[in-house]
Amino acid sequence: MSDVLAVTEHRRGELRDESFEVISAGRELADDAGGDLHLAVISGDVDSYADTLNRDGVDTIHTVEYGEEFNHDVYAQAIEALFADLEPTFVLMPNSVNGLDYAPAVANSLDLPLVTDVIGFEYDGGLTATREMYGSKVETTVEVEGDQFALTTRGAEWPEAEGVGEADVSAFDFDPDEDAIRSTVTGFEEVGAGDVDISEAEFLVSIGRGIEEEDNLPLIEDLVEATGATLSSSRPIVDNGWLPKNRQVGQSGSQVTPTVYLAIGISGAVQHVAGMKGSDTIIAINNDPNAPIFDIADYGIVGDLFDVVPELIEQFE
Amino acid sequence: MKVLVTVKEVAELADDFEVDGTEVDDRYLEYDLNEWDDYAVEEGVQMNEAGVADEVVTVTIGPERAEETIRMALAKGADRSIRVWDEALEDPDLLDVETKTKILSAVVAEEDPDLVLTGVQAGDDAFGATGVALADEIDFEWGAVVNALDMDADEGVAHVHRELEGGVEELTDIELPAVLTIQTGINEPRYASLRGIRQAQSKEIAPKTLDDLGLDADAVESDLKLTDMYEPESESDAEIFEGDAGETAGKLADVLREKGVVQ
Ligand SMILES: Cc1cc2nc3c(=O)[nH]c(=O)nc-3n(C[C@H](O)[C@H](O)[C@H](O)COP(=O)(O)OP(=O)(O)OC[C@H]3O[C@@H](n4cnc5c(N)ncnc54)[C@H](O)[C@@H]3O)c2cc1C
């Protein structure tokens, strides 16, 4: 049997979307390989999580009671113990921030080849994974040698599993090495609240590294002024301190769903797109015709923003 | 305290490029210091300046060409550098995480640092896994995607913030020795000063082969093989406005009015 062990994720009492996506990815792989789909749910209120995770396609849910929140030392040990018990062919983990915090340790400990941030895979006795490189400008296929594999799956690439399943729920007898738990989560902090809530805006003018310098901000502010838009940005603008954190759109920033999202000088990296792909209409101004932002845009201008933006301002003055 | 910072020279693709087999030809590539490593170097240098660290050493797996990038890190204030390269590393078109982990752990064995800083990911292959895999290999504690760091060297603890999704940060205490993967925005990386650039010329970049590190060619046998590379097929039906800046801006303005977001 070529079974799949997929690891779910929760935070502050709630299962995260990745948990349901990893079920779909896991089911696909288990079907390819002709095996069962096992889920691991670790820490927190595991029994209630198991109820919710019991969706179509899940064969067994292993609950690991230990602590409240994510702790990578606990996760790594629990997954390694489950792996020893189940001997699955694949360990599937979400390529989330927490996934990044335990998956490489698990793969290294178990001596499994690791492919991260996969957007597709095929298994026909051998594993081939698809992933992107160079900031999503190219896609690659990777042949993976081995009998057992560790993969992390990109968020929002697989649909969330639905339906009510008939999985067995089994409490896993977990006896961790407490001495090896050398990190402690002490709390959480919300960041980024501020004057404006960009998630409420109807029209966002969003700027990226293409604006080059802070001195070019007034140009964009003129556009914002002329159109009555709300200003947001990609991450580097915030990292540079040109705009406050509450303006950042993306995975680690805000999710936005405006009527129109105008992306100016933004390449469309996956972590940015994660925050704005739900916009009704996406328009991009970018001088690189291959910029990934054009893949999700409805309208585009391939050109220099320093030529286009002044003309656009003129249209509304 | 000694800090080891991993520094990678990454390739960026030009706006127009062609894929040839499983590679992009060198003439379409521009090499630069990995964005995330720039922040890791800055964090190390700031610890040095604050008297928390007494030496910051960088380590790079890369060919001789990478020395230009390494000098950049030295010019920003790193004390010295190690560059690992070997004929055996020239062949694989993709160095998997395991290979990098083996090489870097051999360097750690030689250098015996108290803290290792890496970038969250490299901008080219974007594995995002080396730091944590390395920590496991050398039995250090670790923290991934760190965007605030407060070292308590006396207590042997790093108080960190890990930047989670959706504007939430996790506060975590990590026992030293540790590997931390550094997220952009944690600090403000400096530009190398002229003086720094001059000083960097006389700082050491020690070349090492696999043999020097007690490794053999088996160490670089990758389980991953790149079998194809292509420009992703765009499923987009984006309407691209044609014309000069004035014309395209006019069409864009029409769309904005049509959608009712601007009068
Ligand atoms: C864990 C993690 C979380 C992250 N979270 C986020 C997040 O929440 N939000 C986010 O945005 N990023 C996030 N990132 C970073 C992300 O990977 C990218 O680095 C970032 O989105 C790139 O921003 P950008 O598009 O502005 O810059 P770049 O990728 O540098 O793109 C700039 C674009 O501007 C174009 N350009 C340049 N000059 C001009 C000109 N004169 N006219 C027109 N176009 C021009 C270029 O062609 C290019 O396409 C995260 C990364 C990680 C690892």
TrEMBL record, chain A:
A GO term for molecular function: electron transfer activity
Keywords: Flavoprotein, Transport
GO BP term (any one): fatty acid beta-oxidation using acyl-CoA dehydrogenase
Domain Electron transfer flavoprotein alpha/beta-subunit N-terminal: 4-185
Pfam families found in the cross-reference section: ETF, ETF_alpha
Family membership: Belongs to the ETF alpha-subunit/FixB family.
Protein name: Electron transfer flavoprotein alpha subunit
Organism: Haladaptatus paucihalophilus DX253
Upper lineage: Archaea, Methanobacteriati, Methanobacteriota, Stenosarchaea group, Halobacteria
From TrEMBL, chain B:
Listed SMART domains: ETF
Domain Electron transfer flavoprotein alpha/beta-subunit N-terminal: 21-217
Keywords: Electron transport, Transport
Keyword Transport belongs to the record: yes
Taxonomic classification: Archaea, Methanobacteriati, Methanobacteriota, Stenosarchaea group, Halobacteria
Species: Haladaptatus paucihalophilus DX253
CDD domains found in the cross-reference section: ETF_beta
UniProt keyword GTP-binding, yes or no: no
Protein name, per record: Electron transfer flavoprotein beta subunit
